[in-house]
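Q: Hi! First time doing this. I have a protein sequence and I read that you can turn it into a structure. Is that right? Here it is:
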Amino acid sequence: MKKVIIAEKPSVARNIADAVGIKKKNKGYMEGDDYIITWVFGHLLQLYDAVDYDVNMKSWKLEKFPFIPQRFKYKVKKDRKGTEDKGARDQLETIRKLIDRDDVDEIISATDWDREGQIIADEIFNHIESRKSIKKPIKRILLNEWTKEEVQKGLRDLKENCQLSSLSDAGFSRQTADWLIGINLTSVATVKYNNSGHKNMLNVGRVLMPTLKIIYDRDKEIERFVSSKYHKLNVQFVTDEGEKFDATYYEMKRNSKDRENDDSLNAAENGEEKYSEKFDDRKYLEDILEKSLNENAVIYKKEVETKRENPPLLFNLSNLQGYITSKHRGFTADKVLKVAQELYEKKLITYPRTASNVLDESVKDKVKKVLEIHRQDREFKDEINFKDTKRIFDSRKVESHSAIIPTYVKAKGLTDDEKHVYTAVLNRFLAQFMKQSISEETKLWIKVEGVEIVGIFIAKGKIQVEEGFKKVEKIQSKDTLLPIVEEKERAILSAGKVAEVKRKPPKYHTEKTLLRVMETCGKSIGDKDEEESEEMMMSILSGFSIGTPATRAETIKKLKDVGYVVADKKKLKTTELGRMMVEKFPVKELFDLEYTGRLEKTLSDIEKKKFTRSEFIDLITDFTVKSVDNIKRDVVFACDVKVEDSKRVVGICPNCKNPVLENEKSFSCSNWRNGCKFTIWKEDKYIQSFGKKVSREMVKLLLQNGKVGFHGLTSKKGNKFSGYFRYVKDETTDRFKWTLEFIKKS
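A: Yes, that's right. Below is the predicted 3D structure, encoded as structure tokens:
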């Protein structure tokens, strides 16, 4: 008798086949003596559309909503054209026939070990069962990597699929909740919005809305920021031996309780944190400099502190996405996930869709072997040694899957994108088993003698004593050297300058920072050592988050696709449409991080059997009904709001930072009503004179990079050349014009 194994992808099926020695391939499956291996390609089934339940739902009308099916049904998924996917239908039939074979006595689900992977297979089992053709036992293989040894081990240690029922319940609950909220609120919001004279489809989602709110809040914070400045007094001292070093002037903070008893001679004992180098009054510092210049000073306190720095924790998916998108151009969170998935399917890394940044204690022996293989390629291999610490191995902080690490398989023939992601995972792994990075920080406390000033001068130096883990990524430490001096030695204040410093506004969210907020619903963000924050870790472990590691990248991509957000290089900014949704959409709970976090935690609790699927659906149904009624009754939403078609957004205006939209004849700033004159005409005669046309892609590149390059430009004499076009503002006319920069042949 044989067993049917259902893999999540053909590439995973091949890995399993390799592990059990199967080479014979048929249409839709591979067969050996003991196993038949088939596959899906993601979800083969999807939930019914509203129109599948009731043909009258084909036309959206307010009175038809809320629409709550009595029982949720599934159908073969649709293709990009909106018709039944023939490939999915055929593969579903292949699976059914294999399961029905007389020589098959067992079914093994080998989909990914998470909510989504669980229901991908369970959807099929339920669908087939509904046709009364499945009566055979169903087992589950749970793997973190698809290497030969792990596959063989997993097949020896199969679980009953029913043991994963709570994981399945959480997956189906998520799916159903997103359908109820998405279908009902998207439909009602769009109808009401279009009844006000607009043509946009308004996408509403359980995870989409709070993510949009995070970006919106940061945009508003930047807009509200009032530019201000402060001053610092930076000076230079010269020792008796003629050695120079820099220092900064500090005074006790105005609100410090110790200020009344302030004595510069015991400043070191008070602690630097009670002092500030920032002053509003420039003249005040200039007077101090004038008094102190060329005066004698004494070093009355010298502090030397050894600083030990641990390597960053192992990658979970969000941290890996954030790291790669911040380091390498052209990467989005969605792209990082796709590349990581490819590496996983090539047996090079462990399961990427994980929220854990530590390893389960059960994998210590395996990690030793992996470490031994990969350390051999490093010049400093003797400095890489296995160690068993809670920073690396801690089962309490692992939820289903450990952190992402390499497997024992050595990488070959990787693409550039794969190299970036794989190298990051490998280096982070090796760094865990190296020594701490050690630096020595020196601080000198200096008092100018014979001058009546209340503050003191502090000089700081830092030298790297031991690189430790920084060798892996070749992180260069910047040393600040101080002369070798001791307490009570003297120096002269030889020079100084009052510097003006502008306070910087908050930074726009990037995919890296956004993923971090989504992962923790904002818990502990801003902490000095946020990666190791206990509050943050507990939030992650309890499921209190926005979305899951597997869905966050998709959410960010969708925000851009539906026109709520645009990416200005790496900066994420809300569009006019996105802002309207946040400001006017009446269902405010959807924008509440706490509310969304509680919903996600409830899904996590379903996995842990602390909450039931039916209770969750009742909760979501009640919320949906009330929300639909709220939208219908609202008199503010969609009234007197003019929003341009978000699908026409091509980038950010370099003049006023509003979206640039594609129109029939031009690419123009959406802020033209307020006087912005940024416009690029499609039939631009200057560009045409060089034998080129203004295209959407050209404008996108121009807005993204500030210039756009062309090869094969034609001069008036018919000669070919290459050049960069820029579109710059003429300050005299306040209009924009083209400039051309020739590219020299190398």
